[in-house]
């Protein structure tokens, strides 16, 4: 499947051609760099919740996720109690999968611990796995669902204690955050990727934090 021409005369990737929510996400956000530890933690968390579901489902619930997980502040999420996690399993606005909810806290604690490592924190760890080349897909079938780099990123994150971070999810993360460009070559947003990444950001490592999140389980 190739690009689809919209009523506005713009060619888009087929997954974003017929749904307003997906179209707006495709046109304004997907494939652009994500700056900041909390923003990247949010993307990793939502990729975990997406496993087995459609991204459209997750995207529609993102405002509720942000509310439930305190804006995805890693320090705050790391300190969520077991009773709070139990409450979230009854939160009608989010995906109420207990293992995925627990993974959000587990991964937040891993983000905090990463600040103590010489890898430069979460942002630099992810950026270190940016592929040297990017795909040039002419149709949707040309786009892979994983890569050696996404597998390496998944393994690196797991080594630091993350869960729900498989090669497929991390490839989707790379697509969504501009580490690779999988807009079809005829998509009107293909060039926007290069406009935003030609002067690639250099993230500053987070300040070291020697506080390991306490277990406030109840």
Description:
This protein is mainly α and 218 residues long. The protein has 11 helices and 2 strands, in the order ββααααααααααα. The chain has helices at residues 20-28, 37-50, 55-60, 62-68, 74-78, 82-88, 98-114, 121-127, 148-159, 167-176, 190-197, and strands at 4-5, 11-12. It has a two-stranded antiparallel ribbon with strand order 1-2. Strand 1 (4-5) and strand 2 form a beta hairpin. Helix 9 (148-159) packs across helix 10. The longest helix has 17 residues, at 98-114. The radius of gyration is 18 Å and the shape is globular. Mean pLDDT is 89; it is low at 198-218.
Write the layout of secondary structure elements.
Blueprint: E1 4-5, E2 11-12, H1 20-28, H2 37-50, H3 55-60, H4 62-68, H5 74-78, H6 82-88, H7 98-114, H8 121-127, H9 148-159, H10 167-176, H11 190-197
Antiparallel strand pairs: 1-2
Helix pairs in contact: 2-7, 2-10, 9-10
């Amino acid at each position: 499947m190739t690009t689809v021409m919209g009523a506005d005369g713009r060619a888009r990737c087929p997954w974003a051609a017929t749904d307003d929510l997906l179209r707006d996400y495709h046109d304004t956000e997907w494939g652009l760099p994500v700056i900041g530890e909390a923003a990247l933690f949010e993307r990793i968390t939502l990729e975990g919740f997406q496993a087995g579901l459609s991204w459209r489902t997750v995207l529609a619930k993102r405002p509720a996720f942000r509310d439930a997980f305190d804006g995805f502040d890693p320090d705050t999420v790391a300190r969520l109690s077991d009773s709070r996690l139990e409450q979230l399993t009854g939160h009608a606005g989010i995906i109420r999968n207990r293992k995925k909810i627990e993974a959000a806290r587990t991964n937040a604690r891993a983000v905090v611990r990463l600040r103590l490592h010489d890898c430069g924190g979460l942002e630099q760890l992810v950026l270190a796995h940016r592929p040297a080349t990017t795909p040039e897909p002419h149709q949707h079938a040309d786009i892979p669902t994983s890569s050696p780099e996404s597998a390496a990123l998944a393994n690196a994150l797991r080594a630091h204690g993350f869960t729900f971070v498989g090669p497929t999810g991390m490839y989707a993360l790379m697509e969504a955050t501009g580490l690779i460009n999988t807009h079809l070559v005829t998509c009107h947003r293909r060039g926007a990727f290069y406009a935003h990444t030609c002067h690639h950001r250099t993230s500053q490592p987070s300040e070291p934090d020697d506080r390991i999140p306490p277990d406030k389980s109840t």
